[in-house]
Amino acid sequence: MSNVKVAVVFYSMGGTNYQLAKWAAEGATEAGAEVKVLKVQELAPDSVIEGNEGWKATVNATKDVPVATSADLEWADAIIFSTPTRFGVMASQMKQFIDLQGGLWANGKTINKVVSAMTSAQNPHGGQEATLLSLYTAMMHWGAIIATPGYSDPVVFGAGGNPYGTSVTVGQDGKMIEDVQAAVKYQAKRTVTVAEWVKKGNQ
Ligand SMILES: Cc1cc2nc3c(=O)[nH]c(=O)nc-3n(C[C@H](O)[C@H](O)[C@H](O)COP(=O)(O)O)c2cc1C
């Protein structure tokens, strides 16, 4: 049993990033961590969501998932983010959540959090790396320790070979094209391992 606490924080409109978050939670749990799966606050108006069956279904599927708070981040040793690619950057809902952490940041509470990120996009080259970099840029300001998969395990190649973090392509039908489950779980386990090293080194 590791003594690492992991917050898996996601935004999802069509369900993909919710699934990635659940797989990450499985991987982190298997690595012995204590895990919370948390969604970020929705910002889109109800009137827009109402007109989109897939979006409505995701809101319903995630209705019992708690909304992430600063207290959750303070609790966590490691944070795994999952966000759709939106015009080549993270979804605004995720950015809003990050922007709400100014108080945590100002009190030095984001320093040394071990972070890792995942994303999805409709196109194979639709901005996955740029999205992950957009998140990691904010993490550098946090003083967080970014733990990417790199090419540290063959499973990364099998999932499309994104060393920045696991990414998946979502078809027009909303289904994932590559099989990334093993890569997500690997990324989560690696994040737990790095968080263990950091925690131990800090004691
Ligand atoms: C406003 C908007 C912008 C998007 N921008 C991109 C993009 O830049 N590149 C891309 O490949 N897909 C883009 N997409 C598709 C989403 O990335 C895709 O639907 C998402 O990854 C699915 O994740 P989810 O099921 O968790 O919502 C965009 C979708 C929306 C609604």
UniProtKB/TrEMBL annotation:
> What PROSITE patterns does this protein map onto?
FLAVODOXIN_LIKE
The protein's UniProt keywords, in alphabetical order, are:
Oxidoreductase
**Transmembrane segment boundaries:** none
Entry EC number(s)? 1.6.5.2
Kindly give the InterPro entries that the UniProt entry links to this protein: Flavodoxin/NO_synth, Flavoprotein-like_sf, Flavoprotein_WrbA-like, FMN_Rdtase-like_dom
Q: Which Gene3D superfamilies match?
A: 3.40.50.360
List, for all copies, the residue spans of the domain called Flavodoxin-like: 6-192
Q: What Gene Ontology terms describe what this protein does at the molecular function level? A: NAD(P)H dehydrogenase (quinone) activity
Q: Does the keyword Oxidoreductase apply?
A: yes
Keyword presence, Oxidoreductase: yes
The UniProt entry's sequence similarity note says:
Belongs to the WrbA family.
NCBIfam families (UniProt xref): flav_wrbA (TIGR01755), PRK03767.1 (NF002999)
- What is this protein identified as? NAD(P)H:quinone oxidoreductase
Please give the organism. Sporosarcina oncorhynchi
